[in-house]
Specification:
alpha/beta; Metallo-beta-lactamase, Chain A; seven-stranded mixed beta sheet; 9 helices; Metallo-beta-lactamase domain-containing protein; Metallo-B-lactamas; RibonucZ/Hydroxyglut_hydro
Length: 319
Amino acid sequence: MKTLNNANRREAGEERHVLEDLAYLRTVMVNLYFVGRPGAGDRQWALIDAGMPGSADLIARTAEARFGPGSRPAAVILTHGHFDHVGALAALAQRWDAPVYAHPMELPYLTGRSSYPPPDPTVGGGLISALSWSYPRGPIDLGDRVKPLPQDGSVPGMPGWRWVHTPGHTPGHVVLFRDTDRTLLAGDAVVTTRQESALAVMAERRELHGPPMYFTPDWERAARSVAAIAALEPEVVATGHGEPLMGPAMRADLADLARDFHHRAVPRRGRYVAHPAETDGNGIVSLPPDSTELLPALLLGGEAAEFVRQFLGEDVAES
């Protein structure tokens, strides 16, 4: 698979180029996207998702460097509302006086009505997954600043793009697609790194995967959403986690992921594998029983030891 950043990979916290009118910023472990040409000016661009908590100043500085001093977005578009995609949202929306748009089924988690279903730290086998019991699951409350995406599929502030409902990872997850060049902003419906693994995330290993296992409460809907994405036959896939990928090899792997989703993406066992969380327009309706049998610390296994050896030093790991 071809990546767009082999020749000029940058550190987290620096803007990375995808296309002339598309760039992304990685905040810790998650990407957010700027849609608009450099120097576009005030209200002539859009922000897709809003990164990790504490990243508002970095995002605002990066936006000004790309679009011009004082530049504010026409809109902020959310693929979904998990904590790592809305961490700086409240601060940025107020600073920019910008409207926020999300799918109607995502609004309960953005208007204070409902938390997301609990994560499942028993799936995925990696450090990030094992620690997921501790991640914030909302809700945040944006009040009347957040609005539903237009029913006609258009995307405010993004002419030529359309949104596609891709539930599974969250009830109101959407992807954004531009038909003219078949560019896909995939959120977490698919990702290009094994997001459950801290080692894979830090090394930016480029692998096409289904949505992060620990935060996906409806696997049947997730499977149908990946099939819908594959049917779009994108040329570029830019995801919430991992580097953007492009080209025929990526499309072939995406088609294979859709065909073999239950083997490649769905954990063999877990809280939501046999019984999904049930949600409606007000949030959680019912949850399957919590099947966790081990403390999260016991789930770290070999990856925690390897993580310590590689990033903290051999002596620390053996002490």
